[in-house]
Request: fold
Amino acid sequence: MKLIKIACLTMTFAISIVGIAQNDKKSTLKVNESVPFDFFVEQFSDIKVLRYQIPGWENLTLKEQELVYYLTQAGNSGRDIMWDQHYKYNLKIRKALENIYQNYKGDKSSNDWKNFEIYLKRVWFSNGIHHHYSSEKIKPDFSIAYFNALLKATKTSLSPEIVEILFNNVDSKRVNLDASKGLLEGSAINFYDKGITQQDVEAFYALKKSPDPKKSYSFGLNSKLVRNSKGELEEKVWKSGGMYGAAIDKIIFWLEKAQTVAENKKQGDAIGLLIQYYKTGDLKTWDDYNIAWLQATDGNIDYINSFIEVYNDPLGYRGSYEGIVQIKDFDMSKKMEVVSKNAQWFEDNSPLAPEHKKKNVVGVSYKTVVVAGESGDSSPSTPIGVNLPNADWIRADYGSKSVSLGNIIDAYSKAGGKGKLQEFANDTDEIRLAEKYAELGGKLHTSLHEVVGHASGQINPGVGTPKQTLKNYSSALEEGRADLVGLYYLYNPKIQEIGLVDNWKDLGMQCYDNYIRNGLMTQLVRIELGADIEEAHMRNRQMVSSWVFEKGKKDNVIEKLTRNGKTYFNITDYDKLHELFGQLLKEVQRIKSEGDFEAGKALVENYGVKVDQILHAEVLERNKQFPDAPYNGFVNPVLVPKVNAKGAIISIAIEQPKTFAEQMLNYSKIYGFLPLEN
Reply:
């Protein structure tokens, strides 16, 4: 479970990862430590592309560096899987766009060509033609006639049907959560054959039973659901020899190399189970792997690799491909271990109903890590924190791993824009607290969200999994639940008692100010005027903020103020707001524990979806003065091995990409393992 990918206006976060081995020398810059690091790559449309460093790389042994290298190679090898998952024509479209980009000899000073370049970069950033965050189709700012001329001039092949789709309203939404339009019928995601309905899917999986009902398999996680020649539903499993097999075989190749340099037996055994899972597609092996991965806590290197998060499936079954490789940040991890050590205290003292609390919170490990590369669902747009595995029964019996991506958070901080706080904050006290505590508050909310939030609470016996009971609202409710846990404890003397902050009240006030300001106002810069909120994390933040705003009206807990035609929100009673966060947390946990779909639907639809259009227009107008793009992402450092005459690696250097385009073209060249149609 990930925290949201960062945008410029907020300190709320999420994770994932992958690197690169071979490279085009023209596309990289060697790291020179005597020169200040340049985090900025370029900005276009609503996107800013950054670089990040890998601090401490030189302190790893060569064997550890090899392990990182092999794992990042494995992650990158599945890059095209994510593209194809996002949309069935994405690989064909990308090939055509890149061929035009590299071979066009005509006028490159025209606005049309500049708009073509921006369109291609937006498609690269989103791993397809739908926006990485809103999931709306990205429309070109050039005509279809101009595009057809580019195709002709470069002898590029792309069917007229697909060309038309780029410009029309067909498949306009990658992930549609509006049930009135049909969750599958309105979604372009390539997880289901056209014509398959939500009712078909639910009926298909209702027939599948796990051997142990208390240890439910993640049915549908690693497959596409299709109709066969007989008209019957069947799964095309993502495995070696199955769908995406060509890319998966490359992933296996690099994982087998990684296993030879594993830091210890537990780590090596876990990698071995992941290899077996990729070879067989067996969901029991997936569970066995997750348990083994959880228990492999020793060593300096860790990773995430496979089909994991289900946010891109409107029904919550299918996992998007991602890879993560991470190096332990020893100093920060030691400081933050105190959160996981106190996980049981947090659970015992939460406002949840007694029957919804875990009696024994087990195995919650928390680390701050240094990212060594990202791919798939986490690149170029990256999260900043993650808590896995996602299976509730594994979390209950074996615990979870939580990580915060320290070097990613630092890169965001050092490359961030100025002035937005002053524009949207209500008063000087709010600004003063933000300047002192925003960075620490963001990190603490991340850790509490991931370590305590996602690990807390339990589902009542006999109640199905959230994807079965809460359906298309499960992701927003789960992220809201984890956010609420963090908010509840950020304003609590316990965090000062255990040494995390010097003044719990000031830090808590800053976090509350930031959350309400973002949830009710500033996050709106990410969506177009007139649009509903679709993305799960945005829904969660508005849901939480709008609910406490409404419930606190009687006592004027949060004031809505207008000065000089500008709207501000002012918290008048932090203690009562803390109580309201606790009340909502209790209710959201009840909804999850009891599988109360109607209550969950009402909460999300009534508070998290619709936007105040007058306020939205105002926020967009006020934000025009700031040059920073609302969305940030990264190019990945390039790991370059040096080998001896026998082919053995003797050193691995880090080079930084020079431009976004060069890395994207390089990735397509090196990791383009899949056919254009799968």
About this structure: Residues 25-78+243-634 form one domain. Confidence is low (pLDDT under 50) at residues 6-27. The longest helix spans residues 428-453.
